[in-house]
Automatic annotation (TrEMBL):
PROSITE patterns: SDH_CYT_1. The chain crosses the membrane at residues 454-478. The lineage of its organism: Eukaryota, Metazoa, Ecdysozoa, Tardigrada, Eutardigrada. It is found in: Membrane. One of its GO terms (biological process) is tricarboxylic acid cycle. It comes from Hypsibius exemplaris. This is Receptor ligand binding region domain-containing protein.
């Protein structure tokens, strides 16, 4: 029996591609952050697949100090292993953390060699073109199709014109560029009017001019960058009267981590009150971190911290700032491999080299796996389904609170769960895509209305002038007859001396008439 078990043992080779910051390059997806999760993931894989001889190796180049260099050499690293060091009878699996937009370069070779390829942190839009990525699966927590998400979000609120702004100095610039690129390409392809620009700093003349361009073209701004840069952007927007509720600012951040900054108005400086008012115009989008609160991750967190403390290559300041979604998705990748490989039958064990990457990937896609106490779903494109939250500033709590959760389903639809009604500067709806009088207040309708208003005003003024002139003429006429203007109610009555003169003349005429009648009667 023991000999039979030994005969069934096969080799499962795990290749972990990484840009190790111990040599100078540091991102949240680099080895010094993910190493604890790789350690626990390998241990879990070995426990679930005791019938396999599981080995692993890192493919790194000490000369890599930039993301550009990582993209340049990644195929060379893989090719050297495949053609010189690969063991033919092993089942190879390539794992990549990513973070330098190199995932597509690795996929080109994994696809050509028909090797299972799993990304655990970053992902590229190419994965959704399955004819080019038959062996690619991702467990990344930020694998959402941001282009489709924003398309549906903008359509839901009838916004069709927008600006996509990127912070070019963000520590996670490649990630920001990737998200912004997804949004821009999808929206432009679907007929949206998109303005794509960088916002560098308050001192940059081009950045200052950017707000004037936004004012002329849209009222919705999508911001991809860190919290500090957003604060500077809001200072400039407030100074230009662009945070009064007419504009909507949608900021995108993967999850809470010091490297992204703290999205909060209070930094105890002179701009706090200005930023607090500006945050009323903000909607913050980030991944729905339900998994981070689970018992599984809570249990693993202490283990990951202990492993980080014992590894002298990991800086002490990183131990309490581990990127949990990335560690969780890395550990999860090993567990996913364990479930799939563990289900292979004995025939496969005797001929493991006949199992290719496409076959292994097909065992993962369009399925839901139970890992620990969590259900992890991989859709038909090999992408892990995740959710995002939309948060809005609360005047009551003075912080951002979730108003909407959007989650994906295996059939490709998005589920919208509202946690609070829309409340925007005292209104129950967000502002329209374009103000009633246009972006510059010069629409033809409003110009005509303004012209009609001027005409009515002119008529009113003209009528007033006529009435005033008539009154003045009447006053002058009365003045000519020696009568002072009397504002009383009896202005129409004659003066006493005039009344006596008229009465005296009438009495004298009557006496003359009576006298003549008496004389006539005597004759």
């Amino acid at each position: 029996m023991l000999d039979l078990i030994k005969a069934m043992l096969s080799t499962l080779l795990i290749l972990k591609l990484s840009h190790r910051p111990f040599y100078g390059l540091d991102t949240l997806t680099s080895a010094n952050y993910l190493l604890p999760a790789v350690t626990t993931g390998l241990a879990a894989l070995r426990r679930s697949c005791p019938q396999f001889n599981i080995t692993h190796r890192w493919l790194v180049d000490p000369a890599i100090v930039t993301c550009a260099k990582q993209r340049e050499v990644i195929q060379d690293l893989l090719a050297k292993w495949y053609y010189l060091d690969r063991r033919p009878r092993a089942i190879p699996i390539i794992l990549l953390g990513g973070g330098c937009q190199e995932a597509e370069y690795a996929n080109q070779l994994a696809n050509a060699w028909n090797v299972l390829y799993i990304t655990t942190a970053s992902v590229d839009a190419t994965i959704r073109r399955k004819s080019q990525t038959p062996t690619w699966v991702t467990t990344s927590a930020i694998s959402l199709d941001y282009g489709n998400l924003f398309k549906q979000l903008l359509q839901r609120y009838q916004w069709s014109s927008l600006a996509v702004i990127v912070d070019p100095y963000s520590i996670n610039i490649n990630q920001s560029r990737n998200i912004a690129g997804q949004i821009q390409r999808r929206l432009q392809a679907d007929g949206f009017k998109v303005l794509a620009r960088d916002f560098a700093s308050l001192e940059d003349p081009i950045s200052r001019e950017l707000l004037a361009v936004i004012r002329e073209s849209c009222r919705v701004v999508i911001y991809c960058g860190g919290a500090r840069s957003l604060r500077n952007f809001f200072i400039s927007a407030t100074d230009n009267n662009m945070t009064d509720g007419e504009y909507v600012y949608l900021a995108v951040t993967p999850f809470d981590h010091p490297s992204y900054g703290k999205f909060h108005w209070q930094e105890f400086d002179n701009d706090d009150e200005k930023i607090r008012a500006a945050y009323r115009s903000l909607l913050l989008l980030k991944i729905y971190e339900v998994s981070n609160g689970s018992n599984d991750v809570a249990d693993m967190l202490s283990i990951w911290k202990n492993l980080a403390e014992m590894d002298e290559r990991i800086p002490a300041n990183l131990i309490n700032n581990l990127p949990l979604p990335y560690l969780s998705s890395t550990h999860m990748a090993f567990q996913l491999v364990g479930q799939v490989v563990g289900d292979l039958n004995s025939t496969v064990f005797r001929q493991p080299h006949q199992i290719d990457g496409t076959q292994l990937a097909r065992r993962m896609i369009n399925k839901t796996f139970t890992i620990g106490s969590e259900a992890i779903a991989i859709d038909s494109l090999g992408v892990r389904l995740v959710g995002v939250t939309l948060q809005q500033f609360s005047s009551t709590s003075q912080k951002l609170e979730t108003i909407l959760i959007v989650s994906e389903t295996l059939n490709g639809t998005l589920v919208w769960q509202y946690k609070a009604p829309v409340s925007w500067f005292g209104r129950s709806s967000f502002p329209p895509n374009e103000p009633p009088c246009g972006y510059l207040g010069q629409s033809e309708v409003c110009i005509r209305r303004a012209g009609q208003g001027i005409l009515v005003e002119a008529i009113g003024i003209g009528g007033g002038i006529v009435i005033f002139t008539g009154t003045l003429v009447m006053a002058l006429i009365v003045k000519m007859y020696g009568r002072p203007i009397n504002p009383g109610l009896d202005w129409w009555m004659l003066e006493p001396d005039i009344r006596w003169s008229l009465a005296h003349r009438k009495s004298s005429s009557l006496r003359r008439t009576q006298c003549m009648e008496s004389v006539s009667s005597l004759l």
